[in-house]
Specification:
Length: about 260
C-alpha cells in the first residue's frame, strides 16, 4: 500500500492558490500594463531594501487581516500591533504605595495621565493576574528604540491586573504622529495623496490563561485624525475620553478577552 505523505505545508499552498486566483481577477479588472508592473516591482524592491516592508504591511494590510479574523466576534476588538513593538519590556511594580508608572525618565515631558481599565472574560468573570503589556510614544511623538533618543524601554512596560481584573497606570497623554515619509512608504502616500498621520493611541497587549491574546489600541475622542487614520486602526469600542482632574488627565477603558 502506498503511504500518503502529507504535503510539507498544505496551508501555504492553499493560501497561495487563493492569492493567485484573486490576483488574476484583480488584473483583469485593473488592466495593468507592463510598465506599471515594472514600476511596482522596482518600488517593492526599494521598499524591501529600505527595511520598510513591515511598516507598509502594518499601515495598509494589517487592519484587513484583523477585520477578516474578528469582525462579529464577541469581546474587545483587536487593533494593530504595528511596527513599534519590541520584546523584553521591564516589569512595572507599585513602589511605596504609589500607583504603577510606565517606564519614563525623571522629569519626562508631557501631560500626566492616569489610565485605568478592567479586564474580564466573555463570560463576564474578571480576569485577575492578566499580563498587560503597554507601549506608546513620548511628548515628541516618538517611540523609544526607533526614532527617539530615549532609553530603549522608555514608555514600555508590563504589569498584572489585581484580584478584580483592574489596573491603573501613570503615564502621559500620547500624541498623534506621522509614520515615516522619507522612504518608499512615503512615496506611495504621495502617489495616492494620503496624509501620513495616526491619531494618538496607547498600545496594549493582554495575556490571560485560557484566553486568546488580545492585541489592541486605545483612542481618544476629539482627536482630529480619528476618521482618516492612515492605518485604519480605529474601532468604536476602543474609544475613550480624556477628563481633566486636579492638573492631570484621567482616562479609562474596559477590555473583554475571548476564551480559547
Ligand atoms: C502603530 O500603531 O504604531 C502603527 C501601526 C501601523 C503602522 C504604523 C504604526
Ligand atoms: Fe503606535
Amino acid at each position: 500500500m502506498v503511504k500518503q505523505v502529507a504535503k510539507k505545508n498544505e496551508r501555504v499552498e492553499e493560501v497561495f492558490d487563493l492569492f493567485i486566483k484573486h490576483v488574476k481577477n484583480f488584473l483583469q479588472e485593473a488592466h495593468l500594463n507592463h510598465e506599471e508592473y515594472t514600476n511596482f516591482v522596482n518600488w517593492a524592491d526599494r521598499l524591501g531594501r529600505k527595511g520598510e516592508l513591515p511598516l507598509f504591511a502594518d499601515v495598509f494590510l494589517e487592519t484587513h487581516v484583523l477585520r477578516a479574523m474578528y469582525t462579529d466576534k464577541p469581546g474587545t476588538q483587536p487593533s494593530l500591533l504595528g511596527p513599534y513593538f519590541i520584546e523584553g519590556s521591564p516589569l512595572i511594580e507599585a513602589k511605596d504605595g504609589k500607583p504603577l508608572e510606565l517606564t519614563q525618565r525623571p522629569d519626562e515631558a508631557g501631560e500626566v495621565m492616569y489610565f485605568s481599565g478592567n479586564v474580564s472574560s466573555t463570560d463576564g468573570k474578571p480576569l485577575a493576574k492578566t499580563r498587560v503589556e503597554m507601549w506608546q510614544n513620548d511628548a515628541s511623538g516618538k517611540y523609544s528604540a526607533f526614532d527617539s533618543d530615549a532609553p530603549r524601554y522608555n514608555f514600555r512596560g508590563h504589569f498584572f491586573t489585581d484580584e478584580n481584573g483592574d489596573f491603573t497606570v501613570k503615564t502621559i497623554v500620547p500624541l498623534p504622529y506621522s509614520i515615516p515619509t522619507d522612504g518608499p512608504t512615503g512615496e506611495f502616500l504621495e502617489y495616492t495623496e494620503q496624509h501620513p498621520m495616526r491619531p494618538a493611541h496607547l498600545h496594549l497587549m493582554f495575556e490571560a490563561e485560557g484566553h486568546e491574546t488580545l492585541i489592541t489600541q486605545v483612542f481618544f475622542e476629539g482627536d482630529k485624525w480619528l476618521e482618516t487614520d492612515v492605518a485604519d486602526g480605529v474601532r468604536l469600542d476602543l474609544m475613550t475620553t480624556l477628563e481633566e482632574k486636579d492638573g492631570y488627565k484621567v482616562s479609562s477603558l474596559d477590555f473583554v478577552m475571548r476564551k480559547n
